[in-house]
Amino acid sequence: MLEKRTTLEQILNLVRRLDSIHLVKLRQALDHLMAQIPDQERERLYRQLLKERGLMSKVDRPSSRPRDHHPIRVSGKPLSEMIVEERR
């Protein structure tokens, strides 16, 4: 891991020396490469990074089974209308 971190730091030092046009081109190339990573893998890597930085202690996995959601019937205006009115 230390070797990878050193390599990343070297790359970042090189990137800091790029002019604006090359930064834009680099961003486009990185976006293209990121788009090739499957969504699940990107999500897993993002959660791993948050844990490494101490921003998350654990990741709750979404349930694989669907939940039964039943709307609650209430009288009066729809909740969304009440919220909009309160914000005015």
What are the salient characteristics of this protein?
88 residues, 4 helices, 0% strand
Describe this structure in words.
By secondary structure, the chain is mostly helical. It has a domain of 56 residues. The chain is 61% helix and 0% strand. The protein is built from 4 helices and no strands. The longest helix is centred in the N-terminal third of the chain and has 16 residues. It is elongated, with a radius of gyration of 23 Å. The termini are far apart. The relative contact order is 0.05. The model has no long low-confidence stretch (mean pLDDT 86).
Layout of helices and strands, plus pairs?
Layout (H helix, E strand, L loop, with lengths): L1 H15 L3 H16 L3 H14 L26 H9 L1
Structural class: mainly alpha
Radius of gyration: 23 Å
Helical stretch count? 4
Unreliable residue runs: none
Question: Could you write a compact summary of the structure shown?
Answer:
With 88 residues, the chain is mainly alpha-helical. It has helices at 2-16, 20-35, 39-52, 79-87. 61% of the residues lie in helices and 0% in strands.
